[in-house]
Design brief:
Response regulator, 5-stranded parallel beta sheet, phosphoprotein, 132 residues, 5 helices
Length: 132
C-alpha cells in the first residue's frame, strides 16, 4: 500500500503528538514526520520550504485549533496566503465540537476534513486512502 511521504502534526499536546506518531508508525502511514508545537513555529518553518522548491513540504497536515502563541485558525490564515506548487491536504484534528468551528473549517479549500480527537488507526487509514 502506498503511503504519505511527509506528515506534519501541529499540536501543543505532547501526549497527542506521541500517540499520533505511534499510531502512524503502526499504520505505516508515512515515511517521516514534522512536528510543530504551535502555528507560529509551523508557519516559520513551512514558509521557507513553500517559497523554495516545495520538495520537503508535507503531503498531509494534522492541525489542532487550540494552541498558544498562534492557534490553528491563525495558522490557516497565514498558510493559505503563501503560494505553493505542491498540494497540501489539511485535516483539522481537535477536541473542539463547537458547531461554529466545524462550519468555519468548510470555508478553507485546503481543509479536507474536521476530525474530533482522539484519532484512531482506522481514521488514519481513511485519510491514507483519500490521499492515494
Amino acid at each position: 500500500m502506498k503511503k504519505v511521504d511527509i506528515a506534519c502534526i501541529i499540536d501543543d499536546d505532547p501526549i497527542f503528538v506521541f500517540g499520533t506518531k505511534k499510531i502512524m508508525k503502526l499504520a505505516n502511514f508515512c515515511n517521516s514526520f514534522m512536528v510543530f508545537h504551535n502555528g507560529e513555529e509551523a508557519i516559520n518553518n513551512l514558509r521557507p520550504i513553500m517559497e523554495s522548491n516545495n520538495a520537503s513540504l508535507p503531503d498531509v497536515i494534522l492541525l489542532d485549533l487550540n494552541m498558544p502563541i498562534m492557534d490553528g485558525w491563525e495558522f490557516l490564515e497565514e498558510f493559505v496566503k503563501i503560494p505553493s506548487q505542491k498540494e497540501v491536504t489539511i485535516y483539522i484534528v481537535t477536541s473542539s465540537i463547537d458547531p461554529q468551528d466545524i462550519e468555519r473549517a468548510k470555508y478553507y479549500d485546503k481543509v479536507s476534513s474536521y476530525l474530533i480527537k482522539p484519532i484512531s488507526s482506522e481514521k488514519l487509514q481513511q485519510i491514507l486512502s483519500a490521499e492515494i
